[in-house]
Amino acid sequence: MVSDHIMAVDVKAIGPSETSAWDDYIARHVSDALFFRADWDKPFQTYRLTVERLAAFRNGAIVGVLPLVHQRSLLFGKHMVSLPWFDTCGFLADDAESRDALMAEAVKRAAQRGVDEVQLRQREPAEISEYVRTDKVLMQLELPATGEELWGGFSPKVRNQIRKGQKAGVTVESGDCKLLDDFFNVYSVNMRDLGSPAHSRKFFQAVLDAFPEEATVHIARLEGTAIGGGFTMSNGAAWEIPWASSLRTYNKLCVNHVMYWHMLEQACAAGATSFRFGRSTPDSGTYKFKKQWGTQPVNLYWYLLPAKPGLVPDMSPPKESYGKAAEIWQKLPVWLTRIIGPQIIRKVA
């Protein structure tokens, strides 16, 4: 029998006129609310994707939220994700009744659209599904008050690699949209070389437009030429780095070490208390790069909620490389990957 308490919870998708109430709710409940914010509408719209915002109400007040993006692909399947491309942004709820109501509505809407599953990316374990992927960790570095203290905590190897790049003439500057072209040129070349599709320049411009106070572009240069780029976003007391790249031609100059040291110094100066290097697979190359800075792995919980009766979600980790397809991609001209890439990435979670 359903209790009156549960019956009192009503879930609906809120429209543009109600996003201020949405933002007020998340601001009251989490200090690092960046990826929940309604401002992400415009960046997602560059791919013709809509953020559907489910809100649980009790007595007219929001008591839970869940943002979802519907993605469809013949190759990657049909799913609703909270949220694509980012490490964590699942649900927030005042209590179990509000949480369960949100889950039920999400699965109902997914089923109505013929979607296979709902994927929720949580930083904390939650009792919402027996199907959960735990193959990724978020690499996080706790920051001291000053860059000097941070430098003192690095291993001699890391300090030597930073000095090596600096002595070779690698410099780093930080700014706004004026540096976007340099960042995108480095990023799109690097992604082609890795055999992976890249976001569009239009997407990054939309992020900068939507988050002018939070987003910063960092460019590593050698004799004026951009050879590395990082895109950071302040998220409460934490700094996130969703995107970073460098040109492999200059790997021997320790470009990434100089660039990350600059960004970490900037984060300390801004009063940030942690720097999130992004997700990695344990013991992978990117995991080891991030680990050397003194980061600690934080478990991530990606829950899969089947939207079809009897469906068992695929629990295998996504491929790190697509083999022959990646090899072919690496041989394409950069200008062509910039056209095709966004059409692929809009369908990949």
Q: Please state the structural category.
A: alpha+beta
Strand content: 25-35%
Give the topology string: H per helix, E per strand.
HEHHEEEEHEEEHHEHHEEEHEHEEHH
Sheet with the most strands? Answer: 8 strands, mixed
State Rg.
21 Å
**Number of strand elements:** 15
Q: What's the mean pLDDT score?
A: 92
Distance between the termini: 37 Å
Q: Tally the helices.
A: 12
Helix content: 25-40%
Please summarize what this structure is.
This protein has 12 helices and 15 strands. It has helices spanning 4-7, 19-29, 41-45, 96-112, 147-153, 156-167, 180-194, 201-210, 255-269, 285-291, 324-330, 334-345, and strands at 9-13, 51-58, 61-73, 77-82, 92-93, 117-122, 132-133, 137-142, 170-175, 215-222, 225-235, 238-246, 274-280, 296-299, 301-306.
Describe, in plain words, how this protein is organized in 3D.
The structure is a single chain. Helices cover 35% and strands 28% of the residues. It is of the alpha+beta class. The strands form 2 sheets. Strands 1, 2, 3, 4, 5, 6, 7 and 15 form an 8-stranded mixed beta sheet that branches. A 7-stranded mixed beta sheet has the order 9-10-11-12-13-8-14, with helices on both faces. It is globular.
Key attributes of the depicted protein:
15 strands; 12 helices; seven-stranded mixed beta sheet; alpha+beta; 349 residues; single chain; disordered N terminus
